[in-house]
Structure formats: C-alpha cells, structure tokens
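Lab notebook, page 48
Experiment: co-folding of the full assembly
Goal: obtain a model of how the components sit together before planning crosslinking
Operator: M.T.
Materials (sequences as entered):
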Amino acid sequence: KNQVEQSPQSLIILEGKNCTLQCNYTVSPFSNLRWYKQDTGRGPVSLTIMTFSENTKSNGRYTATLDADTKQSSLHITASQLSDSASYICVVTVSGYSTLTFGKGTMLLVSP
Amino acid sequence: KAGVTQTPRYLIKTRGQQVTLSCSPISGHRSVSWYQQTPGQGLQFLFEYFSETQRNKGNFPGRFSGRQFSNSRSEMNVSTLELGDSALYLCASSINPGLAGGNEQFFGPGTRLTVL
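Observation: model returned without errors.
Model output:
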C-alpha cells in the first residue's frame, strides 16, 4: 500500500533557529516528491519538487533532500521566521499518472 | 495568470442538506482534482476530472459527486450532509497529469464547509 509518513507531527521552534522535517514513503513506482507549505485556512503552495535522480533542491531558506534508496526525504528550514508557521506536507506521485499520496503534514510553529 | 479560484469560501449548512462547490482552474489547465482536508485525516483525494470525464476516484461514498464543464470549470456536490462532512474542500488544477512534468497541481484557497 502506498503510504507517506511525516514526522514530527508538530514542532515549535524559536524564531531564527533551524529545523528539519522528515518524510518517509513507500510509494512505488516513484515519480517525484514535493513539499508543500499550507498556511492556516489556505490551499497548499508548492515549495520544491524532486525526481528520482535529484537529491537536493533549494528554494530560498528551504532545502529539500531526497534519498531514493531509503525512500526518505527531509525539508530543512534555515533561520526560521514567524511567517514559516504553517503545515508542511510531503506529497509523492506515482509514476506514470496523476495519483498523489499525501502525508498528514507537520505543523510548525515559529515562536518569537 | 490568475490562480485557482473556489467559491464560496465559507459555507454553513445543516445535516441532510446538499451543497455545491465551484472551482475555476488556471487558464489552460484541463485537469481538476478535489480533496477533502480534515485535521485528523489530512488531505484525502475525492476525484479527478479531465476533459469533462471523471478519470480517478477516491474512496468516498456516492453522496460525493462532481462534474466538469467544457471550459474546465468544475463543481462538486455533496448530498444528505453529515456532521463528518465538515472540512476544508480543496480544488487543484494541472495542465495534464499524463504529460511529463505536467502533473504539478496548483491549489485553490479552499471552501470551508461547516455542517451543523
């Protein structure tokens, strides 16, 4: 069964600190993995996308890594800001079609 | 380009009623997918429409239905509402998921449905 597991479920960090969110998946065959940021009451917005051959992708202070062998991905946030407070969702696409498998997300709260 | 729009943004209904939600995709996008998001379950796939045809369907009861029009706009309908249907309903559009690189989905802001 295709599954995406995210950890931690929630996280509180101080403004300016770094953090790393984890995503483990069992989706097969794998096409790509995306990280989305979802602000409360809004739709998710794509941060990064990585295919099988990519192991790092950056978007400003966000850096995603992918280990296709261990089927793990991480999202590292550097020098966190209050506006980073949101849910971060890992989404894996099954190869060849539009089927997406979503993780339940990590709720990040950046405290001043 | 305008993003994905959804109407209404907020809706309050009572049990047993029915509701219709609307989604206008990004211009040129032919695929529209619908998701239900609740705090405990995260995002759950409802169905996907492409060129007015339902191409994929999630594991939801028949009370949930949808359709897509020739201009790619889509509606979803929920009949005989239950308390558990309270959720954020998200619509996402993409160019054509079957094309390489074409499966990036762009989400709308969602419709917050509350069933009393």
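Interpretation: The interface with chain A takes residues 4, 31, 33, 41-45, 48, 55-56, 88, 90, 92, 94, 97-98, 103-110, 112 of chain B (CB under 8 Å).
Next step: discuss with group before ordering constructs.
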